[in-house]
Amino acid sequence: MYLDMFKNIILICFVLSINACGSSSSDTQEFSTVTKSALGNELFHDKNLSLNRTQSCATCHASEQAFIDIRLDAFGNISAVSVGDDGFSLGDRNTPMAAYAQFSPDFHIGARVRHQTEQNAFKNYAGALGGQFLDGRELDLKGQASAPPLNPVEMNMPDKASVVARLQENDDYIVDFTTLFGSDIFDDTDAAYAAMAESMGEFEKTIQFAPFDSKYDRSLTGAYTLTFKENAGRAIFFSQFANCGICHQLHAQFDLINRTKETFTGYEYHNLGVPENAAVRALNGVSGPDNGLQLNTGVDADRGKFKVPTLRNVAVTEPYMHNGVFRDLTTVIEFYNHISNRSEPSHQMNPETGLIWELPEVADNISIGELASGDVTKMDSVTEIENMVCFLRILTDAKYEHLIQEKGIICH
Q1: Tens of pLDDT, residues 286-305
Q2: Are 187 and 330 in the same domain?
Q3: Do residue 173 and residue 195 come from a single domain?
Q4: Distance CA 82, CA 88 (A)
Q5: Distance between CA 186 and CA 196 in Å, rounded?
Q6: Is 141 exposed, middle or buried (0-12, 13-18, 19+ CB in 10 A)?
Q7: Same domain, 144 and 265
Q8: Which of these, 253, 290, 292, 248, lies nearest to 268 by C-alpha position?
Q9: Which stretch of DSSP H or E encloses residue 270?
């Protein structure tokens, strides 16, 4: 009897071992721990996806400084625009911060938004909203991630097939792609390329891109107490005195739930009358105005408009504006004063150059109504401007707070 039982046990073990060997492929897929975001992390940092294997997405979106391009120019400053994989091609726009980009809604036109002004009246916005890139030319994060590898002044790959061929040089990628997207994913170049972009988009949705743990966020829970200047700046920002929320506020302050996820942008498009960055143009050879949103929509009324950026991490993501023409937050505030009060003698000088402000790159369609809707344009005193800068600094993610440069403004 015991001999028969022993034989049966051996037979069962043998059958189980055969089944295990025969089903290893499906079991590997079923129990695989790979995720699209984990794959996207690898792809995001892979320099092999550029023509000369010198540049990855992380080259222009460095995790150590709020996912911006931190490479320096000839003067030791963070460059206003990025250098391409070939080592000399220069872009014409400042590389947007990838942090918090996940919250931009899919690009659409015909949006209507109603804002309350400082006089308790209402101002309506009608136009484009959301999308990725400064001109909204990509619908979402997946679309955004698909663009740089093929851009000749960025990663410079000749076509999608070349990128997919580079993917297949990596055995780990082959396993991960087939696990996540099917065994035949590499049979279709477009599908494989889209899978790559989707994975990077999923990586950009992870918490490291949007921790919501700044001093501002911590102050909402009582974990941080604002200094006098920080609190004064906060009061100005959220008041109808300044009305910054016309462009830089998504959730109402009385919305106790959603204000903890405030992105400090309404994702609208506006022309602020920003001057041309002549220094960049002298190097990259680009001529003519950057028409911004109009290049995407084809609508003349959109000339010179760019998406309103988030103010998260703004204190550590210089230079500023769509072309990186300003280097200091104080300059940006002074510029708003100037563009809305161009007839006022006190607003005629650029504090960075000591010269008269240059003319707008695109002079029509300037959003004067939004800029003048609050008294931020009359924030003339040094104290008021410093308080505003101190508030903007507390929007910095905790891991980047050590990067803040005081530049003569003490907030504690």
Answers
A1: 999 999 999 999 999 999 99
A2: no
A3: yes
A4: 10
A5: 11
A6: buried
A7: no
A8: 248
A9: strand 269-270
Give me the residues of the chain with pLDDT under 70, please: 1-32, 116-121, 342-346, 373-380
Residue 341 near residue 301, CB atoms below 8 Å? no
Identify the CA nearest to 138 among candidates 187, 105, 170: 105
d(CA 408, CA 330): 11
Place of tokens 């400064």: 134
Hunting for tokens 């003349």 — which residue is that?
Answer: 300
Which of 168, 192, 208 is the C-terminal boundary of a domain?
A: 208
Q: Amino acid letter at 357? A: W
Q: Which tens digit of pLDDT belongs to each residue from 37-64?
A: 999 999 999 999 999 999 999 999 999 9
Residue-wise pLDDT tens digits, 65-124: 999 999 999 999 999 999 999 999 999 999 999 999 999 999 999 999 987 665 566 778
- Domain endpoint, select from 178, 208, 238: 208
Question: Which residue from 247, 242, 239 is spatially nearest to 263, judged by alpha carbons?
Answer: 247
Single-letter amino acid code for the residue at 133: F
Q: What is the token pair recorded at 234? A: 């906060």
Helix, strand, coil shares of the chain, percent, nearest 5, are 45, 10, 45
| Residues composing the chain | 412
